[in-house]
Fold:
Amino acid sequence: MSSPLLALRGVRKAFGTGAARKVVLDGVDLDVAEGSCVVVVGSSGSGKSTLLRVVDLLEEVDDGQVLLDGEDVADPWVDADAVRARLAMVFQQYNLFPHLRVLDNVTLAPRVVHRVPRQEAEAAALAMLERVGLADKARAYPDQLSGGQQQRAAIARALVNGPELLLLDEVTSALDPELVGEVLDLLLSLRSDGVAGRPTTMLVATHEMGFAREVADEVVFLHAGRVHERGTPAQVLGDPQQERTREFLRRLR
Structure:
């Protein structure tokens, strides 16, 4: 049996000190196989976003291992920039540079960080914008786009470098309800068709249960920084075994 692309082993993370210390991740174990989609669900404050930030090395772990293709990237001696070059994270807010055109937002990292020549970077960016349905917006500025279009541009920016793992942190939470569908449709397409002939590996934090049912290989229910239940969408969302999972789903309904 092959090793997972991403494996978390006993990951712990707390913020604050003394009486104000709050444990956010409390011994989390998690596997993400290459080409799979693992969806993390849970209430606000359950640790979902911190989990993704730990994987992207935006937060240091207090204990445990974050294994990317077998290498413990949580080791303080690891080159964090080299690790992040293998990952891509899309946040709740789009984080597009407002003074740059969409095309320039998407090509910025390839040109500045990876030293890709402008012509080559723009060709790849235009192909990716076509992939996400924004080819006609390449020369628009972010404030000329809808929220859904801005989030699709952010996803294009994340994918253009060909990441091994795509991290998605509540990417629909800042959108008006009528715009949620277009972003979820894009993620469904990425899941089914992949990118550049390669399956897309995703770790997703979301409150969109319909998306989780349709896309996830595994759903992980996080509560108070611990994994309380995991399994297929049918198991966790359709027939939960843990009372905390049932309470969470009742509140959603």
